[in-house]
Amino acid sequence: MSIKKVLNSKTLYFVLLGIVALEIIGAAFSIAFASEAPQRDAAISNLFLALLTAFLFSLPYLIESRFKLDIPSYLKIVVLLFLFAALILGNIHNFLENVNGYDKFLHIISGVLISVIGFEIVHYFNEARETPIKLSPGMVSLFAFTFSMTLLVLWEFYEFFVDTLAYHINNETERNMQRYQWIYEGNYFPQDYGLIDTMLDLLVGFSGAAIVSFIGWRILLKKNLVQDNPVTSKNNERD
User: Fold this and answer.
1) Is residue 70 classed as helix, strand or coil in its secondary structure?
2) pLDDT of amino acid 1
3) 217 within 8 A of 137, measured Cβ to Cβ
4) Which residues contact 197 (CB under 8 A, 6 or more apart)?
5) In degrees rounded to 5, what are phi and psi of residue 28?
6) Helix, strand, coil tally for the chain in percent (to 5)
7) In 3D, which of 223, 202, 22 has the Cα closest to residue 119?
8) Is the N or the C terminus of the chain less surrounded, counting Cβ atoms within 10 Å?
9) Could you give the dihedral angle defined by the CA atoms of residues 71, 16, 87 and 209, in that order, rounded to the nearest 10 degrees?
10) Could you count the other beta carbons within 10 Å of the beta carbon of residue 227?
């Protein structure tokens, strides 16, 4: 089987889903046989994250089936890999804490990825025959940017509520998504490390979203100029 055929099929989806299924089984056993409260707390959190990952893995295919859409293959592959890197490797296997810079890397990628998804959403509606109004390149880019930033903020909400819930279940929890348990020993910031982590996450996500939105705006603007200028369009076709 060729690489191209694999990437254009559900092979990656089933492989990653199989790994997630093993994570679910492992977390369930840990909950059943945990001898200490922190171990049980971590297992419950991991079980929830694994179930959430399984649902999010299936979401693109559910959307395709429900709304009769054709999501680009590259986008589904990138989404699957990102979710696996963020939820399974990042949270369950603690890459976020143990691998230096992993957290910020994921937030940059998330800003880029969500912006691309925003562009794809608007592209679909712009190409739909029943849509009476087509958005300008500037509005498409603005939507992609604000769409990305909204989801990034919602993710920070999620981290905050998970840390808070875990703390109230067991105040000795090891769940530390917002790094509130870390002590900031530098002199540059006047805040605790938890606030610094949240703001840096948003800033790097903002940077990724802004770069993609700007590049997308320039591409759409150039495409519109070519379409509006028949002479330029014909010359490009000859070339």
Assistant:
1) coil
2) 47
3) yes
4) 103, 178, 179, 182
5) -65, -40
6) 80, 0, 20
7) 223
8) C
9) -30
10) 10
**What pTM value is reported for the model?**
0.79
Nearest alpha-carbon partner for 192 in 201, 204, 184 = 184
Residue 104 identity (one-letter amino acid): K
CB 191 within 8 A of CB 178: no
| d(C-alpha 133, C-alpha 125), whole Å | 9
Structural domain spans, the chain: 1-93, 98-225
Give the model confidence (pLDDT) of 166-225 as tens digits: 788 777 777 777 888 888 888 888 888 888 999 999 999 999 999 999 999 999 888 876
Residues shown for the chain: 239
Query: How many other CB atoms are found less than 10 A from the CB of residue 187?
Result: 6
Model confidence pLDDT, tens digit, residues 63-99: 888 877 788 888 888 999 999 999 999 988 989 888 9
In whole angstroms, give the CA distance from residue 102 to residue 162: 20
